[in-house]
Amino acid sequence: MKKKLFITRKFPAQIVEPLREYYDISQWDEEEMVIPRDKLLAAVADCEVLWVTLADQVNEELLSHAPNLKLVTNLAVGYNNIDVQALRKRGVMATNTPGVLTNTTADLVMGLLLATARRIPESERYLREGKWKSWYPMQLVGKDVSGATIGIIGMGRIGQAVARRAKGFDMKVLYNNRRRRHEAEEMYGFQYASLEELLKQSDFVVIMTPYNNDTEGLIGAEELALMKDDAVIINASRGGIIDELALYDTLKEGKLWAAGLDVFEQEPIAMDHPLLTLSNVVALPHIGSASLETRTAMLMLNVKELTAYGQGKAVTNRID
Ligand SMILES: NC(=O)c1ccc[n+]([C@@H]2O[C@H](COP(=O)([O-])OP(=O)(O)OC[C@H]3O[C@@H](n4cnc5c(N)ncnc54)[C@H](O)[C@@H]3O)[C@@H](O)[C@H]2O)c1
Ligand SMILES: O=C(O)[C@H](O)CO
């Protein structure tokens, strides 16, 4: 008998179909909308394998409804949506998608850096709104990226890919990480700094840590106050790492140049969120890994795990 697989979103048919060789598949039939929680809890009742997106919370509640669950595959590298302890307790395995999205996400971070520093979205709105009357010296002036100091908090796969790109802009790279990256320091001249020194010295601060109990609220009012008044903060990791209301207050008081945000505490962000009232906030709908090549690679990495499990082989990229 085939194993039962439930997929919490409508994924492209050509990706899912080959898995029917091993699985009896059911899936939520919406591409855009998250499956309502009650439907998800009912759907997992008899499934052995669950394929989720970062919008699905895999926690004690879900596990208590899924007595046969053995494997969860997560279509993301970040796995803060998964309660790893709860999984461990029940002997459920989980996998994620490290590596395949590193470059694409680092590219987006550089996009946010340029967009905020050079006021690109604001300038585009200005043109489209018919405000462009002439060229004048101080029109929409921004700040230089080239030659500036970037401070990267979380020097993992993506953090290091951002740092290498920053070298191409002749930036001085400071970083803070759980452990020193001696090899990268020697090879590229990246400099380790305490969080405090990094915040004080950087023109651009980029957050690339995972989101967990240690990093929740890592950047609050006190940390923002350490930053230069004309610095930019970029978050492409997870929303809860920056205190959004503290960020709003700091930007509103003119104590930061701008913020580039791909992620938010609540996603989608509420349209009346105070951050969205500020013209120096560039806000994106969590598109860090959103290139066709990379989203396909993420799906295919999950498929590889699911195929291995279906064939009775070991899965890789385990997070449990
Ligand atoms: N915006 C997007 O679409 C998008 C895309 C991919 C990843 N992400 C996020 O980016 C995160 C990082 O991905 P990655 O592949 O680089 O992961 P990674 O594990 O390779 O890197 C994370 C790094 O952060 C460091 N770190 C952890 N806690 C820290 C702390 N308190 N202070 C300083 N450093 C700390 C770790 O030591 C590690 O080097 C993911 O967990 C995910 O949340 C977002
Ligand atoms: O963690 C991740 O992988 C992103 O947030 C989506 O690609």
Automatic annotation (TrEMBL):
It catalyses: (R)-glycerate + NADP(+) = 3-hydroxypyruvate + NADPH + H(+); (R)-glycerate + NAD(+) = 3-hydroxypyruvate + NADH + H(+); glycolate + NADP(+) = glyoxylate + NADPH + H(+). Gene3D superfamilies: NAD(P)-binding Rossmann-like Domain. Its EC number is 1.1.1.79, 1.1.1.81. It is an enzyme of class 1 (oxidoreductase). Residues 110-288 form the D-isomer specific 2-hydroxyacid dehydrogenase NAD-binding domain. Residues 7-319 form the D-isomer specific 2-hydroxyacid dehydrogenase catalytic domain. GO terms for cellular component: cytosol. PROSITE patterns: D_2_HYDROXYACID_DH_3. Keywords: Oxidoreductase. Pfam families: 2-Hacid_dh, 2-Hacid_dh_C. One of its GO terms (molecular function) is NAD binding. It comes from the Bacteria. SUPFAM superfamilies: Formate/glycerate dehydrogenase catalytic domain-like, NAD(P)-binding Rossmann-fold domains. InterPro entries: D-isomer_2-hydroxyacid_DH, D-isomer_2_OHA_DH_cat_dom, D-isomer_DH_CS, D-isomer_DH_NAD-bd, NAD(P)-bd_dom_sf. Belongs to the D-isomer specific 2-hydroxyacid dehydrogenase family. GhrB subfamily. This is Glyoxylate/hydroxypyruvate reductase B.
